[in-house]
Design a protein that fits this description.
alpha/beta, 5-stranded mixed beta sheet, 6 helices, about 25% strand
Amino acid sequence: MSAVNEIITVIDVETTGLDHTTDHITEIAAIRAEVSADGTIREIGRFQTFVALPPGTEIPEFITELTGIRADDLRGAPDVNCVRTSLRRFLLDSTVIAHNAPFDLAFVPLPMFTLGFACTRALSRLVDPDESAKLADVCARYGVDLNGHHRAMNDVEATLQVYAILREKAELNGITYRNVVIDSDERPLKYTPPGAIVRTIKRTEGAA
């Protein structure tokens, strides 16, 4: 099986924590692009915004240390409902890509009129089962620049490059990865996107 040209939208969210039922989005970024059969990327457009937090909500200190995002950055930002509405339009008629898609799609549910999703973390585990699937490690392995990790647009730019590389490897080897999410000992699945195919993988030393 060979790869084909496709329109994708790579997304990333930064949040106040890891629990989509109690935590909140602070930043969203996305790049819409066409990926050709040979892995060439043609960027179509970008979407990036901070997101206002509900009244009384604070950004934990460890999140600010991780992302660099502070309360002052969010002043005047649109609220989450407005941002989700705008993002849904940006995602129309594309395949949604994210590194650890169950996390991002828990905060930004996959809208109708998309072409499904692909998780580059799952894709990495399927293509390189004995290697770490952390975004920084995948980027280092394939020579992809990752500057300013844990800022939404920086992670999106790197994930776009990673997807183009790993997609070609998966297609050449007949690996099913579309709509696939990984449940594993080191990273138990906390949210399953609608229609997802769950693959359970046993613990592998060094993988994450």
